[in-house]
Amino acid sequence: MAEAPNETIAGKQAVLEKMSEHPAVKALAAWDPAALIDALFDRGELSLTVPPESIIPAVNAIKNAGYNAFEDMTAVDWLPSEPRYQLTYHILSHAFKQRVRMKAWVSEADPAIESITTVFPGANFYEREVFDLFGIRFEGHPNLRRIMMPEEWVGHPLRKDYPVEGYR
Amino acid sequence: MPEVGSPILQAPPAEGAKDQHMVLNMGPQHPSTHGVLRLVLEIDGEIVVRLYPEVGYLHTGIEKTCESKFYQQVVPLTDRVDYLGPLANNLCYCLAVEKLLGLEIPERAVWIRVLLTELTRINSHLIWLGTHAMDIGALTVFLYTFREREEILRIFEAVSGQRMMTSYFRIGGLAMEPPLDLFDRIQKFIKTLPEKIDEYSNLLTGNPIFRNRLLGVGILTAEDAIALAVTGPTLRGSGVDFDLRRDMPYCGYEKFQFRVPVSNRCDCWGRYEVRLEEMRESIKIIQQALDGMPGGPVKADAPKIILPDREKMKTQMEALIHHFKIVTEGFNVPAGEVFQAIESGHGTMGYYVVSDGTAKPYRVHMRYPGFASLQALETMCQGRMLADVVAVIGSIDIVLGEIDR
Q1: Which of A57, A168, B85, B274 is the most buried (most CB within 10 A)?
Q2: Would residue B79 count as lying in a domain?
Q3: Which structural domain, as residue segments, surrounds residue B234?
Q4: Residue B225 is inside which H or E element, if any?
Q5: pLDDT for B113-168, tens place per residue?
Q6: Is the peptide bond before A83 cis (omega within 30 degrees of 0)?
Q7: DSSP three-state, residue B90
Q8: Can you name the CATH fold of A9-115?
Q9: Which has the closest alpha carbon to B261: B284, B283, B247, B242?
Q10: Which chain A residues are Cβ-neighbours of B102 within 8 angstroms?
Q11: Which spans in B237-333 are helix H?
Q12: Nearest-angstrom CA–CA distance, A167 and B224
């Protein structure tokens, strides 16, 4: 890509203007520029934040733009800020040889988002892991059960308010 | 075979789901499951109807542990994730934190990193080859591959003092200058390795039992492989020509010439071919690294991040202060998030590190190839014989430590 890797481009407007040739930015701009909440190009990595309710069309737009390989998804718990959970999807393009990071924020009151397994079946285990360790529900997931912890486990260990010590 | 996007990996098969089907539990102590993988199989006679991997038996919460350690203290934790390729874990984590810090590391450290990471790849592939062949019934190869692996472990021991949990790559460079005779030793080792690989190949490639157990077994098309997030040699065995070392170079790989082996067979045999070739390519990279090894320091010039040498620490006041500060308080890393991916022996290894500006990582997420490869197991085994499941598990080269983390 033409951008210098160490340049930082912050903000939705700046990214839409300066990186308009970037295939992922182009695809999202063509889909619905209003739906893009925030964007950041930092340390050579592009992050695009979309609202949680439109994660499926956004991921679909990215996939149709050539980002064909789902690589990773996880969550970050930003307690005590609201919305609390940041969901991060890393999607790679074999053709452009670059990856894009999609972000969506979900609230503490109703930690739920649509499952992207219909777009990328490979997200299956990753969504189960996030469900297990963060307690975020994925609507439409074919088999949303705990994956790491035992079935009868109480609590979600990777949440920041989960105790890291046992009884004293 | 199910088409892409079909509801694979749904709930596990239930007892008595269909009268003529039997639900069979395989593992977690089954010797061919490479650790503690449990498979719930629904079988019709000997034909696999459904297959369901149950993981989590080795879950130790490493990602949670990372959150309460200083950045430099996470390095030894990473060794324990994929314990067959410790230096690859170290490399991936260090590159991620160095990206956050914006730290440039010296040329010599980069080259030694490449050299040792390729040795790690050979180590990982040797174990894969030995255990895979053993699962299928060819016990001899196991003894030979472990003979060569032993020499690699001795090299790791010479370099870091540890055979498996090396922690040799540190944030900002290497732990220390490698011992004087290291390069001669590696040179001697890789000189004999190609004939050893020919030896394995002689034992297996023409072996009719081995051929029949692998050829046409565990078919995974390129579309399915990409859809199920499969990476590494398994993906290249399905005919997708993609290797992070060549296509998205990190850690100086753009300076090395090597070929990326690809097989269009899409079966266990294709994956066998790819890994065998990959070992030969790794030898080429090691040779180039040895030939062009630059001189100079092995640590970046960043006294507030990298521990000073023992000598300096004992004689200079400033070095002592830095040492004390780094050990007791760590060092602050600028806020931000990075995803660093490398091509490990098993596939794409990625570290997603989020910093909030303090001395401890806010979140470390580890993406390991085995976790994703397991999702493809059902696609590869459906409609095949039960005995083929063993061959397929071997061919995707999983390590349960990296799956359960």
Answers
A1: B85
A2: yes
A3: 62-404
A4: helix B222-227
A5: 999 999 999 999 999 999 888 888 888 888 999 999 999 999 999 998 888 888 89
A6: yes
A7: helix
A8: Beta Polymerase; domain 2 (3.30.460)
A9: B242
A10: 6, 43
A11: 244-247, 268-291, 310-315, 317-329
A12: 47
Mean pLDDT (chain A) is 85
Which chain B residues are closer than 8 Å to A146 by Cβ?
Answer: 56
Tokens describing residue B196: 């050893």
The number of folded domains in chain B is: 1
Predicted pLDDT of residue B187 = 92
Q: Which of A88, A125, A148 sits opposite B375 (nearest CB)?
A: A125
Positive or negative torsion for Cα B75, B79, B81, B85: positive
Q: A129-155: b or e for each residue (b if 16 or more CB lie within 10 Å)?
A: bbbbbbbbbbeebbbbebbbbeeeeee
Q: What is the pLDDT of residue B121?
A: 92
**For residues B391 and B217, is the Cβ–Cβ distance under 8 A?**
yes
Count CA atoms closer than 13 A to B54's CA, side-chain side: 19
B397 and B234 in contact (C-beta within 8 Å)? yes
CB contact under 8 A, B9 and A143: yes
Contacts of A124 in chain B (CB under 8 A): 8-9, 375
Report how far residue B297's alpha carbon sits from residue B320's, in angstroms, rounded to the nearest whole number: 20
Is B38 a domain residue?
A: no
Q: What is the CATH number of the domain that holds B149?
A: 1.10.645.10
**Tens digits of per-residue pLDDT, B307-349?**
888 888 899 999 999 999 999 998 899 988 999 999 988 889 9
Q: Where are the domains of chain A?
A: 9-115
pLDDT digits (tens, 9 = 90+) for B9-53: 555 555 555 567 788 888 777 766 677 888 888 888 888 888 888
CA–centroid distance for B305 within its chain = 27
The secondary structure of B342-353, three-state, reads EECCCCEEEEEE
**pLDDT value of residue B16:** 53
Report the distance separating Cα A31 and Cα A51, nearest Å. Answer: 14
Q: What is the pLDDT of residues A140-156, one digit of tens each?
A: 888 888 888 888 888 88
Question: For the segment B64-120, what is each residue's pLDDT rounded down to a tens digit?
Answer: 989 989 998 999 999 888 888 889 999 999 999 999 998 888 999 999 999 999 999
Count of A-B CB contacts under 8 Å:
109
A81 has a pLDDT exceeding 60: yes
| Least-confidence region, from A45-59, B18-32, B231-245, B275-289 | B18-32
- Angstroms from B158 CA to nearest CA on chain A: 35
Query: pTM for the complete prediction?
Result: 0.90
Q: B157 in a domain, yes or no?
A: yes
